[in-house]
Design a protein that fits this description.
With 300 residues, this protein is mainly beta. It has one helix at 47-53; strands at 43-44, 59-61, 73-76, 80-81, 99-102, 107-110, 121-124, 130-135, 141-147, 154-162, 167-175, 182-187, 192-199, 207-214, 227-235, 238-246, 253-257, 263-267, 274-278, 284-288, 293-297.
Length: 300
């Protein structure tokens, strides 16, 4: 098993990943012009936007579970990282159940401070300039911090596929060369199957950190002046919770994030009122993220 393969030694011309599903065809990119403000359809502009879609929930892999010395890096022939992976004798449980990270050659783990990286991270090494995130759990929204080694900034192509493997989004991002993170996110209510990130120039993949994903609880347009109230009482089913959203747009659908993590969609009636009901329910906070509004609920 090889130790400490320095990605920065791999300065040969980029080698594209094998054209096999679900990686897709590297020639399919329809890269939109980037002006720093307009995001292509489906792409998210910030982690705050992702957190709003997820209602503050979701699953996060921060790649901190693998023990590696600060300033170091290690690479071996692992090509799949998931919740069952044993890497350098450590694991399972290095990442959460729900997403897998795939390369066509070695997977590298970087320690905090390696070429100025601010935390532990992963990448695909040894001539593999692509890393693929594949979702095993139903996912509607995702986001990941993408980084480059200090002094090695690059462009990267981000390709997103649905659960059937069909392309649903593509864009090119510019990763800064100071090891600072660049957020990349995507939202697709019908489900995201995988996300592929490919370096343009270097023969290793973009570096990944703080990958968050989950089901969205989105809403249609919400006007200012919306109000949210909750009511609870005891019924034979347990705690009965009713959340009432008023002063919204008739016919629009609104997502209520309930205290237990469930998402309930409700269509506003002709009076601009949407209601979500749940039993049994839990005490906590009801959030309608699309309206940036929340209300507490206390079960009797």
């Amino acid at each position: 098993m090889r130790k400490l393969t320095c990605a920065l030694l791999l300065l040969a011309a980029p080698v594209w990943a094998q054209n096999v599903a679900p990686f897709g065809d590297p020639g399919m990119h329809a890269v939109p012009p980037q002006d720093g403000t307009v995001m292509p359809a489906g792409f998210l502009g910030s982690r705050a936007e992702l957190n709003t879609l997820l209602g503050g929930g979701g699953t996060t892999d921060d790649f901190e579970a693998f023990s590696i010395a600060d300033g170091g890096a290690t690479s071996n022939a692992n090509t799949v990282l998931d919740e069952t992976t044993i890497y350098e004798g450590q694991g399972p449980g290095l990442v959460n159940d729900g997403a897998s990270y795939l390369t066509t050659s070695d997977l590298q783990w970087n320690g905090n401070g390696y070429f100025s990286l601010p935390t532990r991270t992963i990448l695909g090494n040894s001539g593999d300039n692509t890393i693929l995130i594949r979702y095993d759990a139903f996912t509607q929204a995702m986001g990941v911090d993408v980084l480059a080694f200090s002094g090695y900034g690059d462009n990267a192509v981000v390709d997103v596929y649905d659960t059937a493997g069909a392309p649903i989004g593509s864009m090119t991002v510019s990763i800064p060369g100071d090891a600072s993170p660049l957020f990349v996110g995507f939202h697709h209510n019908a489900g995201i199957g995988s996300v592929r990130l490919t370096h343009t120039n270097w023969s290793w993949s973009p570096i990944l950190n703080d990958h968050t994903y989950g089901t969205a609880c989105g809403s249609d347009e919400c006007p200012g002046g919306a109000t949210l109230k909750t009511r609870t009482k005891t019924k034979t089913c347990g705690c009965y919770l009713k959340a009432i959203l008023k002063n919204v747009i008739a016919g629009n659908s609104y997502g209520f994030s309930m205290p237990d993590g469930a998402c309930i969609q409700s269509v506003a009636n002709s009076r601009g009122k949407a209601v979500a009901k749940q039993c049994p329910a839990a005490s906590g906070t009801v959030t309608v993220s699309g309206c940036n509004i929340e209300a507490g609920a206390n079960c009797p």
